[in-house]
Amino acid sequence: MNEQNEQPLDDILADPLADPADEIAALQAERDEFRDKFMRALADAENSRKRADKDRREAEQYGGSRLARDLLPVHDALTRALDAAGDEQRAAAAALIEGVELTLRELSNVFARHGITVITPKPGDRFDPSEHEAMFEAAVPGTNRGEIIQVMDNGFRLHDRLLRPAKVGVSSTPAG
């Protein structure tokens, strides 16, 4: 046997052992530290899972918002075309008007299927900056300050997010 590498049994037994209570306390502290790290890792993994789930839901709901925004002018143009058609044009081009109406109805159905709703303010409604964009202010007799007096364009909402505010004119007539 090589005496340099092996410690005699008498030397090992003669070495006083550390206090068992100190060893237990050290092991308990190490256990508690590992438990804390484990619990933090679990919480971090759970937070990551929840964040990924939220991101996935938002992507499903709002992922098409750019396409939806690009289709809003199409809705506006079809609506304006129908509004501009008078009785004479309706009689002369009944099939054309019906085709435009059907196209607008189908576009509206697609919007509804994907959670897009039209914000349609009316004159006399209260101006709401979270849904409306004031294009001008004018003093109009018989109205109160902050009432909508004219609607230029409807607004649109995708689920609970505003895609485009309704463009309106607002009364500046002071109360009195």
From TrEMBL:
One of its GO terms (biological process) is protein folding. GO terms for cellular component: cytoplasm. Pfam families: GrpE (PF01025). GO terms for molecular function: adenyl-nucleotide exchange factor activity; protein homodimerization activity; protein-folding chaperone binding; unfolded protein binding. InterPro entries: GrpE (IPR000740), GrpE_CC (IPR013805), GrpE_head (IPR009012). Residues 46-60 have a biased composition (Basic and acidic residues). Keywords: Chaperone, Cytoplasm, Stress response. It comes from the Bacteria. It is found in: Cytoplasm. Residues 45-64 are annotated as: Disordered. SUPFAM superfamilies: Coiled-coil domain of nucleotide exchange factor GrpE, Head domain of nucleotide exchange factor GrpE. Participates actively in the response to hyperosmotic and heat shock by preventing the aggregation of stress-denatured proteins, in association with DnaK and GrpE. It is the nucleotide exchange factor for DnaK and may function as a thermosensor. Unfolded proteins bind initially to DnaJ; upon interaction with the DnaJ-bound protein, DnaK hydrolyzes its bound ATP, resulting in the formation of a stable complex. GrpE releases ADP from DnaK; ATP binding to DnaK triggers the release of the substrate protein, thus completing the reaction cycle. Belongs to the GrpE family. Homodimer. This is Protein GrpE.
